[in-house]
Design a protein that fits this description.
The chain is an alpha+beta fold and 142 residues long. It is built from 2 helices and 9 strands, in the order αβαββββββββ. Strands 1-2-3-5-6-7-8-9 form an 8-stranded antiparallel beta barrel.
Length: 142
């Protein structure tokens, strides 16, 4: 039988493993989120950083014609704040101030990749959309 302290320890270890800076490598799904669509079309890259103090950063970038990386986060309508706070509850990622109704969950893959799943953005009025974004770790701690 698993004790409550074992469950809490596992949740804490999972949250600790999330810390660091991550850059998207792939995305797929069917939500109506404008920024997620750009990731799926490989027009943009999402970089997220989760810090030990409970803060995060969120930045979407694209490569310009001359090869420079530029932040395009503010060009999208349905994004979370570029800086904010988060907490984890098991594998759920709770973003403070996110009023989108999107459920964020995460899973750390065996190959040191992070998978974030977004659920809830309606694509065609009736169905709840789901997007999955894969990330590689860029920096272990932020």
């Amino acid at each position: 039988m698993t004790t409550m302290s074992e469950v809490e320890a596992a949740a804490s270890a999972l949250a600790t493993a999330l810390l660091g800076r991550w850059e998207s490598t792939d995305a797929f799904g069917n939500t109506a989120l404008d920024w997620s669509q750009s990731l799926k079309e490989k027009k943009a890259t999402l970089t997220v950083a989760f810090r030990e103090n409970g803060s995060f950063s969120f930045a979407i970038s694209a490569v310009t014609a001359n090869g420079e990386k530029t932040n395009i986060t503010k060009t999208f309508k349905h994004v979370v704040a570029e800086e904010g706070t988060f907490e984890t509850k098991g594998c759920q990622l709770l973003i403070a101030g996110d009023r989108s109704g999107i459920r964020w969950s995460f899973q750390l893959e065996e190959d040191e990749q992070l998978r974030i799943k977004l659920e809830g953005a309606k694509r065609f009025g009736r169905c709840q959309g789901v997007d999955v974004i894969y990330f590689k770790r860029v920096e272990a701690t932020e």
